[in-house]
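Step 1: inspect the first sequence and its tokens.
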Amino acid sequence: MKSGAIAAAGVAVPYYLTGDKVIADEQKSESANDRPLIGCIGTGSRWDAVGPNAMRLGDVVAVCDVDADHAAKGRQRSEAENKKKGRERKVDVVEDYRKILDRNDIEIVTIVTPDHWHSKIAIEAMKAGKDVYCEKPLTLTIDEGKKICKVAKETGRVFQVGTQQRSEMGQLFLKAIAMINEGRIGDIQKIHVAIGGSPTSGPIPVADVPKQLNWEMWLGQAPLVDYRFKPGGQWGNSRCHYEFRWWYEYSGGKMTDWGAHHVDIAQWGLDQQGIGGPLSLEPVMAKFPTPYADGMPTQDDRYNTPTEFHVRAMFPNDIEVSIRNECNELGFGNGIMFEGTKGRFMVNRGKLVGAPVEELKSNPLPEDAIQKVYKGMTPANGNAHMANFFECVKLRKDPISDVYSHHRAMTTCHLANIALRLDRTVKWDDKSEQIVGDDDANRWLAREARKGYEVTA
């Protein structure tokens, strides 16, 4: 097991290891009933990674998307994967996700929709008795995070958020957290987080809604507005599909798109030293692609999330977490730098560097250091994040990226966006989950959903 190879009749079998259990990725001798049945809600570009990873461990029996072209692609790929594994299993296509939740045979759902749909579908999926794998960021508001945590506790469903940095990327982030846990940089004093800025679009004209797209349902809880599209670049400029990330109506810009990864790692590091949530968030600087008034963009025909920004988040013990679009003066444009009383290091998806990292050559981490921060489990050799989810479904335990830790990280991101949009410091009470002394800012913890698309717990 430790050598990373298992032989069966002289043939190596792919596996993942969690704790003391070994589970084959593709056990072709199993009957179809031995593999969980999956319903995929949302089959756009990001699903091209999530869907195939899930299909290594279960069988997709239904796909859902409000874009018929996406749904057809999802069915074609799912049926091909089923056939490849010797299972001639038909995959149903639906436009309404509730038809997937109504099916008793489906045990697991993947949610790979635009951000503003995550919470509603996830809550209803848990109430329908499904275990959930949902892409990040999980929420559009802090109130949605509170509701998801409430329902997760009530239903006992297993829920993995798609923050793959907690499991994969060569275990660079896991090693970083393990170093903090082992005291290699002493007490954390400051964290620099660089997550990139949002793009600009210029004016985007009103356009005809594509025939295959149910635009009204795509909008969901967001206001009913015209469809807009302008050709250009890889995806074109639009209010839809990949480009939803740059509209506050559907997402939170880079603050939630990449903050869901890097702010999550920053707070995971703070967790190792028992540091709670933020106390205050100060907007040092922001550049928006459109003028703002009372926290709202004054133009509706272009991207509206900030292209550049800097928020200073203060945590207990006078720890500053600086969240910016870039930290080039520190030698990196994307990543996280942890500064402690004994040294500092930087980590991103390509490297883990700094004097404490060099010292590992002569003073390596204990053999169980990764397991300690990975909830007593060992990440898989490949497909680790999804494998961790499926194993936790079997064990009925919280996976490595549970809703509770993700809600804490997203609370910081959402508060940062509130501070940027209102252009003032917000003070946070982590226990009551309320902004202190600012009733106007507190109204931004939730938002009114369009009738028929409310998010209820």
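Step 2: inspect the second sequence and its tokens, then contrast the two.
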Amino acid sequence: MNRYLPVARQHFLSALSSMSVVVKFICATVLLLYLLSWAVDTSYALGVTPGYLFPPNFWVWTLVTHALVEEHVWGVVVSVGTVMAAGRLLEPLWGAMELLIFFAVVNVSAGLLTGLSYLFTYAATFNLDYLFAVRVYGAPGFLGGVLVALKQTSGDTTVLRVPQVRLKAAPALALLFMAVLWLAGLPEIAAPMAACFYGVLAGWVYLRFYQRHSRGRGDMSDHFAFASFFPEVLQPAVGLAAGLIHAALVKMKLCRKMVKRYDVGAPSSITISLPGTDPQDAERRRQLALKALNERLRRVEDQSAWPSMEDEEDDDDEVRTDAPLLPTQEVEALAAGTSASQNPTGQESSIISFEDASSHS
């Protein structure tokens, strides 16, 4: 085991060196706060406590800092590994700034929704432990958001071969695993499970409706619908319920109605881009269509090209010079025949005969 540690450390450092400044900053902050937790209760000062998040305390900064706090080594491994996986798989597609926005949106939403859920639980049970004994911190919220993003970008990737598990099932499996741990008698897993669930929900809402990209905003493709997070048996019912809820939110103006957009590009070509389509595939098809159109126009231009006047004159000269010369008798006979055909009354023939007679006399 000890001989593999230097190799793992080398791979970790090489992977971290290739990351952006955003990923390095988040990982360094997590490590620094973990070391600080040995001397200070960082989960109390920087983690989300439902009783302190809402009035009259308003510890709103904890919505930003709770995702960077860890108190256990395994939590640091999960947090740093999640951030590095996002930097390796999502940052090349989105960019560093978009990854930072996604990190902030998911964590703030997960912390706020988790705190609200515990507040409602206290309102139903009047148990103060749900307000002041609960600490929400760590990477579960961002882990749920990253799993949703990986489902969107590379959902068909196979994670396990036996049994065959694809990446698109990872969010549901993560929540199921946490639920099993909670039912097995680990009550401290309840807060991470709630944060992971709300991270999945926040990540899906942001990627589905609000993320800006070159094709517009959001992703309305069928493979990223809310029903796709459930087994195929439940997808029709979940899809119907989700559609009704979305329509109600649109009527209440709490959600924006999504429409498919057709973007017309340059006048030389027409580009039709729909949300959810692969931009590289669309660009490849556009190039093929443009190439076929150019070849067709080239053939039409070759067929309708104007002939050269010099070539026609040269051809006429060749025809005149190459034509065979007729004998003199044939020429006279042709001339006489032409004159007779032009004077059907016979006047020309009488003149000729008169001249002949006068010459004989």
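Step 3: confirm your contrast with the notes below.
The chain has two domains: 7-224, 263-302. The two ends are 144 Å apart (CA to CA).
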